[in-house]
Amino acid sequence: MLNAKGDELLGDAHKxxxxxxxxxxxxxxxTHYQTVRRAxxxxxxxxxxxLVDSVKSTTSKIRSQLYGLVQASxxxxxRNRRSGKRLDTRSLHRVVAGDTxxxxxxxxxxxxxxxxxxxxxxxxxxxxxxxxxxxxxxREQVARESALALALALEPIPGVNPAVTxxxxxxxxxxxxxVKHGENVLNQSGRFMLGSRGNTPMAEAIWYAAYELSKTRExxxxxxxxTDGQPNRVAPCQAVIDLCERSExxxxxxxxxxxxxxxxxxxxxxxxxxxxxxxxxxxLMERSLTASAA
Length: 294
Known about the structure:
This protein has 294 residues and is α/β, with parallel strands linked by helices. The strands form two sheets. The chain has a seven-stranded mixed beta sheet with strand order 1-6-5-4-7-8-9, with helices on both faces. A two-stranded antiparallel sheet has the order 2-3. InterPro entries: NorD/CobT, VWF_A, vWFA_dom_sf. It comes from Marinobacterium aestuariivivens.
């Protein structure tokens, strides 16, 4: 390492990932997964505002809870030092033992500084009706409402940069952008109405999301993949997941009534019913944001 030239040293993991993805896009090969796909913007539907109204109560609850947790984890703490202007009277007993760390000094904790990309499977199987708990809704309705509620809740939290992408259709049209990083979620609410169709081009969607995450400024990158089935192509899907994990993108798979995610993602959650998706996403982000703010 001491004798290595500048161009031989390992650079920033996220910059390396971006360069690797750009090389893949320029090179020939199987376009089903080796090329970084361009997402088509999901069309805006006029029912988007009604969807926002339907999740308003849930969004408000999630936002207040997440915001409160982040604020609590960011509260200024104190550390004892050997010099300073403020005595910590509770630590004066240390002087007897020769420990002069009796001055109190504030310690600022960092904000989350996290980019979150939520990938939602909108393949044909998402049309299935879920349990009575979800009042006869389909999987796609539950997934759509959960993704919107979480994105709206995350957006106002300082240091959090959410995005949502759907994957469905086929290899020629696999990825649909719902909310890009930095976009206003409310303004894109109509795009959440895109319906389920086709199969499960998960590898293409992860390539796209990884490239989008590599362009964000946030230090921490999190990708959450929600699916109810197996990807069209397992081997390339595993390859891009491994690349993301080596490049310090935190990958989490949520399987809706499928354990296929357990063989793809080191961090995975399997839920028995789509009705559990909203609670699962909330708990996942609750742990993630408070851990990153600590």
